[in-house]
Design goal:
The chain is α/β, with parallel strands linked by helices. Among the domains are: 184 residues, Vaccinia Virus protein VP39 (Rossmann fold, 3-Layer(aba) Sandwich); 80 residues, 3-Layer(aba) Sandwich (Rossmann fold), CATH 3.40.50. Helix content is 24%, strand content 24%. The strands form four sheets. The protein has an eight-stranded mixed beta sheet, with helices on both faces. It has a six-stranded mixed beta sheet with strand order 18-19-17-16-20-21. The chain is globular, with a radius of gyration of 21 Å. The chain starts with a strand and ends in a 5-residue tail after the last strand.
Length: 380
């Protein structure tokens, strides 16, 4: 495939994470917005750091960021996600995160700040797990500026009001990539971390789930290396944690460095950004080919209501009848203008494309439980 990188920019731009030079980068695929996974553009350009590979300054972001403060976004559903394994009856992402944080925080943890908390779903889950903690959320959407007396937490729209005390944990749950001033915000957090306090970060791993590199409403698209580099340059040591419920996501705990001189701290080696983004785009090309080959001329439903389902629908809109999701909160809604069904309500003569399923575990489980035909490869 051709090299997607070209040094075409005449503007003096630097990486927001490590301050290095950047190259221009074209994303040669449709890009989506996370509010509803609608399509923003058929392809876009951005800038990629020559040192850490951080993708930033997407041409679509300046316009898309305005949507986060609108009432339409405020009324959307952003926190109903289940575990990425998606079994029926599985707990929500917020409940899993709260249980994890309860285990890694000290027993006497006094305060938690959730940045990009939206409606406070994680704060409510934390209240159940940590009844005595002070809970505060920071969210830019004015509809979410609330005091929830029943659950004992507050959400503010003011960053100055958010940084008001010491916190045992500051949380970025699928939000760090949407915050334009995140590098300066990371530096601002340091004095507000309690002794042994840390930052919790969770976001999609684009090297495992490359379609999340196609979110055109983000300020940044992080790889593991570029995220670690930004944290190091902002003065943090970080350690990666594995959550079995989220095998396709990155989870980090970042703690302030003990050294006083942290301004130039960064990982010792540079990433090969040409190789990284070439690999990511090659995986997306492969997913595209596999989906088109598997679906062929069939009329199908698509499993899921996230970026994968949006990607498939964008590829072959005339072949997709609707979407299937085991999350009951998604059922009887619409996704990209088509209905969402629970798999139990899809007839035995209907076919549901589940996407790449090399081991066949997902398709086999669904075919054993439900009557529709779930498939990942072309059915003759």
């Amino acid at each position: 495939m051709p090299n997607p990188l070209a040094n075409l920019s005449e503007e003096e731009l630097l990486c927001a994470g490590c301050g290095s030079d950047v190259d221009d980068l074209e994303i040669p695929f449709p890009v989506f917005r996370h509010q509803d996974f609608s399509t923003i553009a058929p392809r876009i350009t951005g800038c990629v750091c020559v040192r850490c590979g951080l993708l930033q300054q997407l041409e679509t972001f300046p316009k898309e960021r305005l949507a986060y403060r609108t009432s339409l976004y405020g009324r959307s559903s952003q926190t109903v996600h289940k575990s990425s394994r998606g079994e029926t009856g599985s707990p929500t992402r917020s409940v899993i995160q709260a249980d994890y944080l309860r285990k890694v925080l000290p027993r006497n943890a006094g305060a938690c700040l959730d940045i990009g908390c939206f409606d406070g779903a994680l704060l409510r889950a934390l209240r159940a797990a940590m009844p005595s903690a002070v809970l505060l959320g920071y969210e830019v959407n004015p509809l979410k500026n609330i005091v929830d007396l029943e659950n004992g937490f507050e959400i503010t729209n003011s960053e100055d009001e958010a940084f008001c005390q010491k916190f045992d944990v500051v949380i970025y749950s699928h939000s760090i990539m949407y915050i334009e001033n995140v590098e300066s915000q990371l530096r601002r957090i340091q004095p507000y971390l309690a002794d042994n306090g840390f930052i919790f970060i969770q976001l999609p791993n684009i090297e495992i789930n490359p379609l999340y590199a196609l979110m055109g409403d983000q300020a940044f698209i992080f790889s593991e290396y570029s995220l670690k580099t930004m944290l190091a340059c902002a003065g943090y040591d970080c350690e990666r944690h594995e959550l079995v419920e989220f095998p396709k996501e990155l989870v980090f705990l970042a703690r302030s460095k003990e050294s006083k001189n942290v301004q130039n701290g960064s990982p010792t080696k540079s990433a090969d950004h040409t190789f990284l983004w070439g690999q990511v785009f090659e995986k997306i090309h492969r997913l595209r080919t596999e989906a088109l080959t598997a679906i062929g001329l069939q009329k199908v439903y698509v499993l899921g209501t996230t970026v994968f389902a949006a990607f498939v629908h964008e590829l072959c809109p005339d072949n997709v009848l609707g979407f299937v999701d085991e999350n009951q909160e998604k059922v009887a809604t619409e996704f990209r203008g088509l209905p969402v069904f629970h798999p139990a309500s899809v007839g035995r003569d209907q076919r549901v494309y589940v996407g790449p399923d090399i081991s066949g575990v997902l398709g086999n489980r669904l075919n054993q439980v439900y009557q529709a035909m779930f498939f990942s490869k072309l059915i003759e």
